[in-house]
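Entry 14. Ran structure prediction on the chain below.
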Amino acid sequence: MTARRIHIVGAGIAGLSAALAVTKEGGEAILYEAAPQPGGRCRTLHPTVGFPHDNGTHVLFTANRHALNLLKAVGARDRWIEPEPKGLPIHDMRTGTKQRIGLSPWSWLWPSRRPKGLGLADLSRIVRLAFPAQECSVGSIIGDRPIMDSLIGPLTVAVLNTPPNVASAKRLALALRRLLWPRSGRLLVAKNGLGEDLIQPAVAALQARSVSILTGQRLRHLLTNGERVIGLSLTDRTVALGPEDCVILALPPYEVERLIPVLPVPQRFEAILNIHFRLTGLEKPRFIGFTGALTQWRLVRRDHVSVTISAADAVICRNSTDLAISLA
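Output, structure tokens:
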């Protein structure tokens, strides 16, 4: 009998996760990655000029059970720590006030953890948002209530990277319902960075299962016979597929569209902009939220600060130097 292989194109976090799932069930997986290294958009960058930093401010909710299970599977759960166990610090740049808020409704039992402006009327709106009867925007449910600025707005751009006035209430509801479970509203960050605390453990786990990760291999074309894929045309080789082999495309939508033009893919996106400042920071990471400012989050590490602007289409084309100065 011909052995069945799963060919996974793309060694970002989706591709690595797929390979772990395949090999957990005893299957054989081969990974192909166009970049010189695995990790995709969840890796630590090592530029020739500058300093090492993650290519984003990646924060994990404990409500994300799948991600936590992935960390446990590769032996990296203890490398992700809670930088703000007393609640997320929020700085209002318009008033200069500071507050710590809880992200789980259960934490609002303590007055000090309640989002600014939260009232009884808001609770019914939050319930409607968590269980929307029909598709609508987040903004149409919450309106101009103070909690839009202090809680729902920042949560929406953090989860969906979309402004609340156009963000899908049903999609945000999927995350909100998970936050109803006790201790699901905690935020975790990689203690040392994505490379050391996520990608390297995942790669090590796959190597222990004899998984090959072939880097520098961009998929040029899918070779087909009728409706069946029979081969992969890569950067410097062609891989013939066996009759029982399968292919997983763990790629961005635009790459999937290039390879399979007839397949509908998402067409609308919002940019995320990250700017990294080399500064003497803190021994332990800190994660700080902002309202009334261009940025929503800042992650403070030992030797640098990473600033995130989510839903950044309006500023992505601005001069980078001017933008960095405005955020400093």
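Residues 87 and 100 are 5 Å apart (CA to CA). Will compare against last week's run tomorrow.
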